[in-house]
Hints:
The complex is a heterodimer of chains A (786) and B (206).
Chain A: E1 2-4, H1 5-11, E2 12-13, H2 18-21, E3 30-35, E4 43-53, E5 61-66, E6 73-77, E7 87-91, E8 96-97, E9 102-103, E10 107-109, E11 112-114, E12 117-118, H3 146-150, E13 156-160, H4 171-180, E14 185-186, E15 196-199, E16 204-207, E17 217-224, H5 233-241, H6 249-261, E18 266-269, E19 277-281, E20 287-289, E21 295-297, E22 303-307, E23 310-314, E24 318-319, E25 332-338, H7 341-351, H8 356-361, H9 370-385, E26 388-391, E27 393-395, E28 404-408, H10 410-416, H11 422-431, E29 435-437, E30 442-446, H12 457-468, H13 491-505, E31 509-510, E32 516-517, H14 519-524, E33 544-545, H15 550-562, E34 569-577, E35 585-594, H16 605-608, H17 619-632, E36 640-644, E37 650-660, E38 664-672, H18 674-680, E39 686-692, E40 718-727, H19 732-742, E41 749-759, E42 765-775
Parallel strand pairs in A: 15-26, 16-19, 31-34
Antiparallel strand pairs in A: 1-13, 2-14, 3-13, 4-5, 4-7, 5-6, 7-12, 8-9, 10-11, 17-25, 17-26, 17-27, 18-25, 19-22, 20-21, 22-23, 23-24, 28-30, 29-30, 32-33, 34-35, 35-39, 36-37, 37-38, 38-39, 40-42, 41-42
Helix pairs in contact in A: 1-4, 4-11, 5-6, 6-9, 10-12, 11-12, 13-17
Chain B: H1 24-32, E1 37-46, E2 57-67, H2 72-87, E3 94-101, E4 104-115, E5 123-124, E6 129-139, H3 141-146, E7 155-162, H4 163-171, H5 184-190
Antiparallel strand pairs in B: 1-2, 2-7, 3-4, 4-5, 4-6, 6-7
Amino acid sequence: MKFTLSWLKDHLETDATLEQIARLTAIGLEVEDVDDKAAFKPFVIAKVVSAEKHPQADKLRVLMVDTGTGAPIQVVCGAPNARAGLVGAFAAPGAYVPGIDVTLAVGTIRGVESRGMMCSEKELQMSDSHDGIIDLPDDAPVGTSFAAYAGLDDPMIEINLTPNRPDCTSIYGIARDLAASGLGTLKAALQPSFKIEGDTKTKVKLDLGEDSHLCPGFALRLVRGVRNGPSPKWMQQRLLAIGLRPINALVDVTNYMTFDQGRPLHVFDAAKVKGNLTVRRAVEGEKVLALDTREYTLSPANVVIADEDGIESIGGIMGGEHSGCDENTIDVLIESALWDPMNIAKSGRALGIITDARYRFERGADPEYMVPGIERATQLIVDICGGTAAKTDVVGYAGYTAKIVDFPVSEVKRLTGLEVGSEEAISILKGLGFGVEGTGERVSVSVPSWRPDVDGKADLVEEVMRIHGVDNIKPEPIESLGAVNGKILTTLQIRTRLAKRSLAARGMLEAVTWSFISKAQAELFGGGAAALSLANPIAADMSDMRPSLLPGLLTAAQRNADKGFGDVAIFEVSGTYENDTLSGQRRVAGGIRRGTASLAGAGRSWSNAAKGGGKPVDVFDAKADAIAVLEACGVPMGNVQFEAGGPSWYHPGRSGTIKLGPKTILGTFGEFHPKVLEALDVSGALCGFEVYVDAMPEPKKKATRTKPALELSPFQAVKRDFAFVVDKSVEAGAILKAASSADLQTGHRRQRLRYFRRRLRRRRQKSVAIEVVIQPADRTLTDEDF
Amino acid sequence: MHDTFFFNPDEKGERKVLRTHTSPVRIRTMEAQKPPIRIIIPGKTYRQDSDATHSPMFHQVEGLVVDTKSNVANMRWILEEFCKTFFEVDDVTMRFRPSFFPFTEPSFEVDIQCDRSSGPIVKFGEGTDWMEILGCGMVHPNVLRAGGLDPDVYQGFAWGMGLDRIAMLKYGMPDLRNFFDADVRWMSHYGFRPLDMPTLFGGLSA
């Protein structure tokens, strides 16, 4: 919402400076931009004393210009209208000319020095006119500010309105807010003073059946015998200043009223309206050529104003081209109506029309100003275009019933901490136009017709607070709850953090990748269900909720490899989506390693081999990462089982599944299936894992944190290696399990088992070596014991 | 909202959406837990929008306090303390502007005074510019009622901000879209050391 200072002062009696008016921000009308028009300061009115042909160029003239101070100044000028005696706008060297984005300097044009410039309207961004330099009347005062003379020095203010304030879509409403905040006095509205003769012959019928709320009021007035030419200069200047293009006086009046009073109006050329007007829903497929010269196809969702020939206007949004007013208009019909905000918003959005009328009606125009608005507009039209006003015809308007709010003034203190006395609160509310019944602590407040946003006590608190001043609220520490918070986070939140820290500590970088991936990628990883496909994805490759973190991480690794960073280890701990229910959203820790990015370090085998690094990553790197997450999260590792093989996207022979009991799957790991990598367009040595953080069992609640007594054996532990040649199908895990349960009868406790494995050359068998640590409890073991 | 991501209608004709803000957690918390409530809600959010400062996926953090006393003055204190701590400056000047949000009344937008004269690097605690960093307000009586609480007895405040946005401001990151690109150079440059853990006693960054 833009306005100029002089326009504001039409409604506000004030000595306030521009800086003080920027106080609007503090009362909730955020100042977006202030243009003090300082850019126009360098331009002064000057008179061309003489104009001679340039000695070197036919189209240039050498002017001597009187700027009101000192001797005439020499200027080279190419404008066709440059002549002796012309009075125009002069810019001296050093001035910035906005229209051509140039700071002037003393120049030499074809050998003749030029010490400034006579400007065109385009150069001053007043219009697009570049036919010649500005040509002012002879009596324009030479040496004075051109901007002041032309009315261009009026500062412009732009505010950013929140959608709840339709009352401030008008300059009058802004003035009312400022006056209430103590920045001046609101001027009384002008009373209409024109004669009324005869009736408005064109009648209006509201034909909306039970949906009369779509048009809760319609006022129409005929003005006969107008002369519609350009609007007066003051009006044009104001409209231009806020970015509107003057069209003709009748149209300009409607635009002026839209901003001055927040009252959108429409004018019909009465000669082009056939018969009476009907407000109705459009028929499916009905077309209208609107004022923006575009044709719109309407539906019954749109409310229109039609005559016998068809639609003349899309109600509250945009008029029709057919009955629009032009310079030939003699009789004009002025419409001032009320429309349903929701319907206007929906219609406007569906049709893709953004207008100043829609902007106001979808926020809610003041119903009580519908009739005064048409009076004020009539006054402007009669004053500017002449003509005779007929009686206004008003249909459908039931009047305004004010909402009444029971308001204990102490609510201000309760909600904001501000100490505002009852008297001040009442005076603020009255200043904003609220009716206040009663005095003292509890009053009854009636809400004015222009404030549809105010419903209850909290809204009134806001009104009092913003006018009294938010800056007066001093920060106050929040009261302690009187106890130290114990465990604030949930187990899942704690484990998420632990998983991240443990993986980061293993040299992996934490990534955050998109929750949505392409359908093809989702399908490769068991997803792609219709219920998880977005109806309106932002891009085709971001269409499906991911069933796994791996496709996003794998393609990310490839992007890095394509840029020359092939050895990457990245992880993410985030959500995946098995289905569209609450339990289908999993919390997963997933990661991948590519190239030689193992825990021991990436690099060349010959430089890093001693530390075990430099080798392409494999299934065991991924397994170790998965185990690290489980251990960090406190999963009882003794009960965890590892099974060969994993889901279809893993390599069938180089993958595993981590389980807790027969049912709970804690995670999967492995190298990837070559076909999956090919489908993802990903290559290189790759391994990865996913651990389901949400599948880990809650830690058992313990009554006490006391640990079991620690028994330290005084006898030495013994280590022995055993090698077995077994059938290839025997899993190493099974041997470990057997070994760890074997020695229980002897009363010796196993402490630690490790195994080494080497494939035998023979096809069906392999050799498995295990290291056994035996901790005796009652005596030192001898060779005989083994 | 027009920038909401929708799923296709199910057999009942209902369409699920991706949340555009983290606010639903407020209602769920009020339904599940009696006051006093003091929570913060960080989370992923989605809007159909993409440019240097908008991403179809981003993160918000919201806060909610509900009890029988907490007011705008307390909210100012919390948010000022937060900004000092988060931006790691000794002092901040904040401006609370009355504004409008559907779920709070009164509502505010909050600007922080800063110096933007040196391009994308914003300095807080100095300068003459204002930068909007968050929205907040007193919980709307209708929201309290929806949470089963009497607005004449209970009151409180809520705030919300873009997590990625305040990170961009603090660390001078120019483009939001890079956050989700998993470029190792970006992650190494803007990332933190694995055990650099913020604590109340050790400060935010070591």
